[in-house]
């Protein structure tokens, strides 16, 4: 099973949940989660095992967030399009997407994932520069990935005959 599908299944993302997640409030309140999680884990330096309270809260928010807001009234915002594009991305095995989006998304996913290495290292050895620079890089690459997904959603809603995509 692909990692992205495994993550989607672990989040229990039904069609109704995806519709709610397309709300820009859902999108934008998820953006700082990695930085806040990094800070929460780092806080073990100051508050010891009590750091598990904010860590647990952030994990809970990550699971609740896609269900916490109503579906948006329209899907015209960049954030809504990013979520729609992510659905296309996850369904790419059954509904092909334009090749240039597939390559770009894979590269950005890889860069975002690799950026977690300095986060983990920095949190392990208590190096703030490594931890927070890695978190910022991972967040930047994730937002760039989201921009690619918004572009993908646009392209999938207006496919060209040569891109291999289908209209949704």
UniProtKB/TrEMBL annotation:
Q: Which InterPro entries does the entry mention? A: DUF6653 (IPR046595)
Q: Which domain of life is it from?
A: Bacteria
Q: What is this protein called?
A: Uncharacterized protein
Which keywords accompany this UniProt record?
Answer: Membrane, Transmembrane, Transmembrane helix
Transmembrane parts of this sequence = 21-41, 47-64, 102-123, 129-146
- Write the lineage as a comma-separated list: Bacteria, Pseudomonadati, Pseudomonadota, Alphaproteobacteria, Hyphomicrobiales
Q: Which organism is it from?
A: Hoeflea phototrophica (strain DSM 17068 / NCIMB 14078 / DFL-43)
Q: Which Pfam families match?
A: DUF6653
């Amino acid at each position: 099973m692909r990692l992205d599908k495994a993550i989607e299944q672990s989040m229990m993302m039904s069609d109704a949940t995806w519709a709610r997640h397309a709300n820009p409030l859902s999108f934008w309140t998820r953006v700082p989660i990695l930085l806040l999680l990094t800070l929460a884990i780092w806080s073990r330096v100051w508050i010891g095992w009590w750091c598990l309270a904010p860590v647990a809260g952030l994990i809970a928010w990550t699971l609740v967030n896609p269900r916490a807001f109503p579906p948006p009234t329209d899907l015209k915002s960049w954030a809504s399009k990013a979520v729609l594009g992510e659905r296309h991305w996850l369904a790419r095995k059954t509904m092909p997407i334009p090749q240039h989006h597939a390559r770009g998304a894979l590269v950005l996913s890889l860069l975002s994932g690799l950026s977690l290495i300095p986060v983990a290292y920095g949190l392990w050895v208590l190096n703030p520069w490594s931890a927070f620079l890695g978190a910022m890089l991972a967040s930047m690459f994730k937002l760039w990935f989201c921009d690619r997904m918004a572009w993908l959603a646009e392209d999938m809603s207006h496919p060209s005959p040569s891109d291999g995509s289908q209209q949704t």
